[in-house]
Structures are given as structure tokens and as C-alpha cells.
Specification:
The protein is mainly beta and about 300 residues long. The protein has one helix and 20 strands.
Length: about 300
């Protein structure tokens, strides 16, 4: 049977948020921003799809970081605070392909990006702009029976948005990436008696920036959800593990020690279903960071069928 509408369609706040990282990577690992936002799909049964229809989700999230960690976990102080709003549209037409249900989505981001790198010899900056729009033309979900669902998708980050250069280098005021990213994913969900256990695996494959000849390394992300719905309320725990598995390169040479980032984050989730809309609150606390800013983040989402 299909996953229930209340559990899935109203939880669409993250279904396409195989999306944007929002801390300044211009001072750490990859050239600018890691395309995927670690933990973005937590709280959603990503293995399943909602009933046919058109859905909308609006998510506001904040990001805070106060230290840039190196490969051994040693940090130097900096200040990072971002405020981001996302608009997500998900289309489930009721089509079937290869025995699976089909869906597609698109997402847009607008951000205020605040960075203070004076402790690193940099400067304070505040910028606003759009991140790369993300198109997911194919999402396929299979009902495996006995409460198990699995899905796969393919997303593309379009090289458009807010980015700036000076002297051939990307500035810390940039928010978007001036290159393509392809993002396959695979998820599995177990949904039974109000329980949701979901594991979502995402891989970012980055293309070279033609303006700087910088190739950001490819990365793996794993989002985890364990939650229980009781009446209109949902409570749970969420987590993320992220790791870059190839080196950053520029002009054919490895940058630094490869600048391979790593993150571990955990936190709580609470949601309330009002019937026509669902509000979800999530928080992810940094536990471990390497070659990046030690960010923690809070999300507030509202999602509903159009």
C-alpha cells in the first residue's frame, strides 16, 4: 500500500532538499558552497512518495558557525551566520515507470550570507542572493511491501545565482556555485504504525568551474531519521554524516592536503499536522567537523498540497 498522505505529503519540506550547504567554503574546503545541505532530508520518509498531486513547501533555516577546523580538528575563530528561505514544488502525476511511482521537483533558494574572516586575515561581509536552482526531473519510488519503500532520484544544480570574482578568485560574498553539480540519491524507508525509519544516501559529483579551473571534490552524505507519530504530533531524532571523498584540484594540482571535509551532526525533530498543512521544526548540532566551519543549523518548515 502507498504511504499515507498525512505522513508523507505533509512532510514534503525536505523531499527535494538534496540541496544547498550554506556556510562559506571559500575559506575552507571546496571552492565555495557544498551543493548539498547536510541533514536537509531528515524528518521525511524519502523512500516513499505522496499521492498524486502538486505540493509546496517553504523552509526557513539559520546556520551558525564560530570556528574553521582543519584536518586534525584544530580550529581558528571566525563568525558565520546565514538566513535562508527555500521554495519547493513537487509534482506527483500518478505515472509509473519500471514498476515505480514517478515524481519530479524544483527548488529555489534566497539567502543572506554573513561572514567575518578577520581572524584569518580576511574581512567582514554581508551579501544576499540566490543559490543555484535545483531541478530533479526523475524520482522513482518502489513499494517493497511490509512497510518498506525505496526510492532513487537524480538532481542537477544549475550554474546560476549569486557569485563574484576578484583577481581570478571566488569572493566570500559569493553564495552560488559557478559550475554544474549532478546528484544521484538512494533512500529506504520503513513506515509502520506511526514509525518512520529512513536512511537517505546522496552523492555530489561536481564539475570544474570554468572561470577559476577549480574542481571541488565529490562528496557523500547520509541523512538519518527515526520518528514516531502520535495523533497530530511527530517526535524524533535526526542525524547526518558527510564526507568528501576526492581531493579539491586547481590547474590539475591537489589543493592543500585535498581539503576533504567531514561532518557529524545530530538533533531533535518535532512536527504538528494541522490537517491542511504540516509544520516541522528540526535542529542539528555539530558533533565533529574536519576541513570546514563547525556549523549547527535550525529549520522551520510548512508544507501542504496545492
Amino acid at each position: 500500500m502507498r504511504a499515507s498522505c498525512n505522513k508523507v505529503s505533509a512532510s514534503l519540506s525536505a523531499i527535494a532538499l538534496a540541496t544547498v550547504s550554506m556556510w562559506s567554503r571559500s575559506v575552507s574546503a571546496s571552492e565555495n558552497l557544498s551543493p548539498y545541505l547536510p541533514g536537509a532530508t531528515t524528518g521525511v520518509p524519502m523512500g516513499a512518495l505522496p499521492p498524486p498531486g502538486l505540493y509546496y513547501s517553504d523552509t526557513f533555516y539559520t546556520t551558525n558557525g564560530n570556528s574553521l577546523k582543519d584536518g586534525q580538528g584544530k580550529g581558528v575563530p571566525l563568525k558565520l551566520r546565514n538566513y535562508t528561505n527555500t521554495s519547493l514544488f513537487v509534482w506527483v502525476p500518478g505515472w509509473h515507470l519500471l514498476g515505480a511511482e514517478y515524481a519530479a521537483n524544483v527548488i529555489f533558494f534566497y539567502d543572506q550570507h554573513n561572514v567575518d574572516t578577520t581572524s584569518l586575515g580576511g574581512y567582514r561581509s554581508r551579501s544576499t542572493g540566490f543559490f543555484n536552482p535545483i531541478l530533479t526531473p526523475v524520482i522513482l519510488s518502489w513499494n517493497l511491501g511490509n512497510g518498506f519503500f525505496t526510492s532513487t532520484s537524480m538532481s542537477a544544480y544549475l550554474p546560476d545565482g549569486n557569485y563574484h570574482y576578484e583577481g581570478g578568485k571566488t569572493l566570500q560574498t559569493s553564495y552560488a556555485n559557478d559550475y554544474w553539480t549532478v546528484e544521484p540519491s538512494w533512500a529506504i524507508s520503513y513506515l509502520h504504525n506511526g514509525w518512520d525509519f529512513t536512511l537517505n544516501n546522496i552523492v555530489d559529483i561536481n564539475k570544474r568551474n570554468p572561470s577559476t579551473d577549480y574542481l571541488s571534490g565529490n562528496a557523500y552524505y547520509m541523512d538519518l531519521t527515526a520518528s514516531k507519530t502520535i495523533g497530530a504530533w511527530t517526535f524524533g531524532a535526526i542525524g547526518n554524516y558527510s564526507r568528501q571523498f576526492t581531493d579539491d584540484r586547481q590547474y590539475g594540482e591537489v589543493v592543500g592536503d585535498g581539503n576533504r571535509f567531514e561532518h557529524v551532526m545530530v538533533g531533535p525533530l518535532v512536527a504538528y499536522d494541522f490537517g491542511k498543512a504540516k509544520v516541522t521544526l528540526r535542529y542539528l548540532q555539530n558533533v565533529r567537523t574536519r576541513n570546514d566551519v563547525n556549523v549547527s543549523m535550525a529549520f522551520a518548515s510548512v508544507s501542504f498540497a496545492l
